[in-house]
Structure formats: C-alpha cells, structure tokens
C-alpha cells in the first residue's frame, strides 16, 4: 500500500483547487459577457433614450430624414404576429403532445414522431423565410384574396392581400415555434403520474375524459410554460420575419396587411443607418430584449411552479 | 355467517375455491399473461358479498394483478391477456359485449398511494358522479361520501380548496370518498395504507370495517396484521420459483389461514419465515 493515512495529497489538492478556480473564472466571464452586451447596447441607445424617451414607444414614425423615431407599429406587429403564431403552435403543439404521450401509438412510432417534431427546430430561420416566401405566400394568395372580397367588412380581412404580411408571417412563425411548444408540453404531459390516470380510469372515466379532466389540468402549468416560452421565441424571431412580415410599419388588425416587427425592423434597417438612426435602433433592440426577457423569465417561473405542483402530486406519497 | 370450508380446517386440503353462500365476484383465472410472461396461473376464488377479503403474499406474487382483473384495469396494460372468467353478480365482465369502462363504474378502487386529482376537494369527490352524468343532489352526495369516509369534519370548511393541500392520510380518505361516492358494489383497495403513517393507517382500517356494512371490500396488503385485523377471508398467493408466475395457494377464513393453515407455504409465510 502506497497511500497510507498521513500521505501528503498536496498535488491532488493543488489540481483540485486550480480546476475549481478555472471553472469559476470561466463562469464569471460568461456572466460578464452577457452584462457587457447589455451595457454596450444601453450605452449606444442613450442618445436616443435621452432624446425620445417614452414617446419612442408610442410614436408611429420612423423618419431618418427628420430624425423622428417611434416603434409603436413594430411593438404591435411583434405582439400580433407572436400571438397568432402562438395560436397556431398551441393548437398543433398541444395536440401533438397529447397524441405522443397518451398511449395512442406504439412506443417506437411515438419516438420517431417526437424526433421529427424536434427536428423542425433544426431548420434554419432563413430557410423557413424562403419557404414562406416562395411557397406559403403563393399558396395563400387565392384564399386570402377570396377572404378580402367576401369579408372586407371584417377588420381582419379589411385590406387586400399584397404578399408578405401578418398572415404568412404568423403561419410560418407558428411552425417555427411548434417544436418548443410541443416538446415542453410533451414533457409536462408525460410527467403526469400514471397512477392518476389509473385512478380516473378506475372511476369509470373514458380515455378522453381521463385526458381532458385529469391529465390536461395536472399538466396545465407546464403547458402554460410551453406557451409562454414559445411566445418568447416568437418575439425574438428575426430572419424569417424580416423576409415575410412586409417591412411596413402599420397599426392594423388586418391579417392580410404587410406589417413589421421589432426584430425585422432591426434586421432590415441597420445596414443603411446613420448615427442617429443607429442609436434609435439600439433603443429598439433594448425594447425587444426587455420583451423577450420578460416572456422567458415568466415562462421559466411558470415551469418551475408547474414542477413544484407536480412534485406535490408526487410527494403525496 | 357462511361456513367457509366443509371440512375441518386442518384435516384435508381445502378446495381452492371454497363454496360460498353469496359470492359477488367469481374469479376464475386459469392463465393471465402480460405479453409472453405468465403472470398468474390457476387462481380461482369467490369474493363474498358484504365481507372484507384480503390478499396476502410476497412481492410479485400477483395479488395486485388479480385485484386489477376484477375491474378490468389490466386492460390498459399492453399485452394483457386473460384465460378464464371473472363474473360480477353472475355477469361475465370479460364478455365481448361488455365495455370495461362500464365495469369500472360499478367497482371502486383505491390505490397504494393517494391519487388526488389536481382540483378541489369537492370536485374530486364529485368526479365519478359527474362522469356518470349523475348530477342531481350533488352537494348532498358529496357530503355523504365524505362522511362515510370519515373526512367530512376535517374538510367541510375547505371543500373548494385544492385536494393537494390535505395530508397524506386525508388524501387517502378523500380517495376512498371519491370511490364510494358513486355507491359501487365492490371496493378494491390495493395496499391502501402502505404509504401512510400508523395513525392514518388505523383510521383507514376502522373505516374499512365500518364500510363493510354497505360495501364488499377486497384489499391487497403486505401487512399480515392488517389482514388479521380487518379481513373476514384471506387469500394467500405465492410465486412459482421457476416460472415466476403467481398462484393462489390457499383461501379461507382469516382465522383459519393464520391459525391453522392447510398448506406448508402458508404456515411459513404467516409465521414470518419469509416475506
């Protein structure tokens, strides 16, 4: 025996503490980097913040010639397209999640379909944009035209369909956030203890009643978190929207109208921005970050609380 | 009080299915498979109406599986197959024209761990009534069920509160209330006390004896003393060492099983030689 009690472990101790220090430093650097990015954007946005202040959020102009900037239409467009996308992704995603977790399919098929849905997240944003531009818009054109002709008195169809706009943007965005919504909902649904399902079946509930009255309510917060996190992704999504939203700042309810979002405004505007416009863009970037951050924090909080609640169901043992 | 065995207890081997006077469930399991695995074989017995019947035996002997045959809850397990016949009140519940869901509406079940749904205390108890589209006088019947489960006094002021706010023992009594709210003919209990502390266990046992007046109870338990305390009849199951299949070794009045078992395995088990 070489290592008897009392042998010096000095070398091991040194490695140990060096390793810990390196980890600390790298972790700290990551945090600093995040802080630095926020600080830089804030710093460059300062002139615009001082000049426009709160009116930046309530004004609809974007006029570099007169140095008048406001992002109200972009904020509206961001919310509107994200909410519509969330409706699309919510309906599809939760249905897919139910279908993949409640023993409707053999487990191999479940696994295969789950992977397919998750792979949707691997398609680059710009590819979605191209697909939307060359496929979805032409496909929508006859249908959207008909909607406008027949129902132009409905605010949602009040403008003619010009191509890029809210409707194609929201549809494509919905498919883009589908993997997020579906996979987090799936986790929430499969975390529902099977004994709860058995208990409901034991009371004579049909499969549908079990899903609707027991499984979904138990997973409701997790599904809520899935929706909020999907919403957060939709808010920040850029490339596809820069290609599909229409790059036109309007405050409208019409689904057929071109529109703009904060992210798309940034992507489309920055190449030719002068100093004052650059500062305004930085301000817009701050607004975007704040929106996206709050959606994500909100989502994470709900998700944690959902797990806590599920743990309570589990802890009741 | 029906006599259990025609013969004196320890004279000859008692028949595996003692002739009963008033069976509510006739259970004849020749072979029960999960996929290729023969989980239970040759286990036939009648459950006597208005009595408490306990299933005892070591882990993996198929006690719970037999219990879950009685309300067709095994149907949701992939690969489940039964050769045999289970009849309730004379009707074959595995007959082709019988919907398992309708079977479960006549048989209540309580599980090993409390299974409160994520909803209010009231909604939990009303769950079975509501899915039966049986909504008249809901308040009254929820109250009756909670009273029968000896829980009413503790929860009457928090009916609208989440069922998860109750303690473990209260949750289990809530599940009993939920199971009896629809007034099933039989109440199946799968180790209902194994997750509970001794005081809660005691309350549930007292409750079982009380409920026997109105319901037939079948209980699976790991706790021999529990079987001795509450059960009128006891069935001992064991595992075949080679095939790992469970089977019924002996069934009879609780006193006889514990004091004068006819089978050597039973004797060793109730004496605590193995568990």
Describe the protein.
The complex is a heterodimer of chains A (317) and B (275). Chain A has 317 residues and is mostly helical. Chain A has a single domain, classed as MetI-like fold. Chain A contains eleven helices and two strands. Chain A has helices at 10-52, 55-58, 72-101, 107-119, 125-151, 166-190, 194-202, 207-236, 239-244, 262-269, 275-315, and strands at residues 62-63, 68-69. In chain A, strands 1-2 form a two-stranded antiparallel ribbon. In chain A, a hairpin with a 4-residue loop joins strand 1 (62-63) and strand 2. In chain A, helix 3 (72-101) crosses helix 6, helix 4 runs antiparallel to helix 6 (166-190) and helix 6 crosses helix 8 (207-236). The longest helix of chain A is centred in the N-terminal third of the chain and has 43 residues, at 10-52. The model of chain A has no long low-confidence stretch (mean pLDDT 89). By secondary structure, chain B is of the alpha/beta class. In chain B, helix 3 packs parallel to helix 6 (168-180). Chain B is globular and about 55 Å long. Chain B folds into two domains: 1-106 and 187-275, P-loop containing nucleotide triphosphate hydrolases (Rossmann fold); 110-183, 3-Layer(aba) Sandwich (Rossmann fold), CATH 3.40.50. Chain B starts with 22 loop residues before the first strand and ends in a 5-residue tail after the last helix. Chain B has a ten-stranded mixed sheet, sandwiched between helices. The A-B interface holds A 103, 193, 195-196, 198-206, 209, 213-214, 217-218, 220, 309, 312-313, 316-317 and B 71, 73, 76, 78, 101-102, 104-109, 111-119, 127-128, 131-132, 164, 168, 171, 175, 178-179, 182, 188, 195.
């Amino acid at each position: 025996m070489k290592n008897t009690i009392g042998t010096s472990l000095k070398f091991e101790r040194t490695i140990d503490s060096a390793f810990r220090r390196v980890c600390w430093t790298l972790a700290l650097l990551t945090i600093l980097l995040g802080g630095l990015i926020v600080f830089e954007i804030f710093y460059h946005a300062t002139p615009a913040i001082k000049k426009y202040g709160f009116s930046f959020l309530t004004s609809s102009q974007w006029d570099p010639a007169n140095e008048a900037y406001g992002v109200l239409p972009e904020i509206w467009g961001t919310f509107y397209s994200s909410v519509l996308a969330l409706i699309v992704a919510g309906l599809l995603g939760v249905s897919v999640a139910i279908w993949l977790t409640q023993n409707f399919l053999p487990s191999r098929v479940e696994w295969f379909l789950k992977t397919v849905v998750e792979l949707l997240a691997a398609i680059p944003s710009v590819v979605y944009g191209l697909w939307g531009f060359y496929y979805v818009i032409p496909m929508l054109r006859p249908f959207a035209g008909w909607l406008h002709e027949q129902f132009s008195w409905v605010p949602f169809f009040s403008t003619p369909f010009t191509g890029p706009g809210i409707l194609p943007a929201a549809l494509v965005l919905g498919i883009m956030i589908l993997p997020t919504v579906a996979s987090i909902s799936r986790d929430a649904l499969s975390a529902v203890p099977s004994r709860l399902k058995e208990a409901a079946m034991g009371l004579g509930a049909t499969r549908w009643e079990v899903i609707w009255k027991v499984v979904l309510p138990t997973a409701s917060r997790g599904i809520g978190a899935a929706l909020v996190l999907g919403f957060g992704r939709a808010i920040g999504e850029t490339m596809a929207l820069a290609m599909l939203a229409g790059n036109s700042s309007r405050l409208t309810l019409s689904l057929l109208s071109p529109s703009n979002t904060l992210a798309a405004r940034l992507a489309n505007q920055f190449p030719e921005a002068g100093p004052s416009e650059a500062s305004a863009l930085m301000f817009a970037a701050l607004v975007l970050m704040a929106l996206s951050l709050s959606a994500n924090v909100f989502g994470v909080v709900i998700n944690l609380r959902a797990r806590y609640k599920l743990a309570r169901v589990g802890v009741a043992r | 009080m029906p006599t259990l065995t025609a013969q004196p207890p320890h004279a000859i081997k008692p028949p595996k299915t003692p002739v009963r006077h008033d069976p509510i469930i006739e259970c004849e399991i020749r072979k029960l498979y999960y996929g290729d695995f023969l989980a239970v074989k040759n286990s036939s017995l009648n459950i006597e109406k208005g009595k408490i019947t306990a299933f005892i035996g070591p882990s993996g002997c198929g006690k719970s599986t037999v219990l879950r045959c009685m309300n067709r809850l095994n149907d949701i397990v992939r690969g489940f197959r039964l050769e045999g016949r289970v009849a309730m009140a004379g009707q074959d519940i595995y007959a082709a024209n019988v919907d398992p869901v309708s079977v479960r509406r006549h048989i209540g079940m309580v599980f090993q761990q409390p299974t409160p749904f994520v909803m209010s205390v009231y909604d939990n108890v009303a769950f079975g009534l509501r899915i039966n589209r049986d909504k008249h006088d809901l308040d009254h019947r929820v109250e009756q069920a909670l009273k029968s489960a000896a829980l009413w006094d503790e929860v009457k002021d928090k009916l609208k509160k989440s069922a998860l706010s109750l303690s473990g023992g209260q949750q289990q009594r809530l599940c009993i209330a939920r199971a009896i709210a629809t007034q099933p003919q039989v109440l199946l209990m799968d180790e209902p006390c194994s997750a509970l502390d001794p005081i809660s266990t005691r309350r549930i046992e007292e409750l079982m004896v009380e409920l026997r007046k109105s319901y037939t109870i079948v209980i699976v338990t790991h706790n021999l003393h529990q079987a001795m305390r509450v059960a009128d009849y006891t069935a001992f199951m064991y595992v075949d060492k080679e095939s790992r299949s469970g089977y019924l070794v002996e069934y009879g009045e609780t006193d006889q099983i514990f004091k004068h078992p006819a089978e050597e395995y039973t004797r060793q088990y109730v004496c605590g030689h193995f568990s």
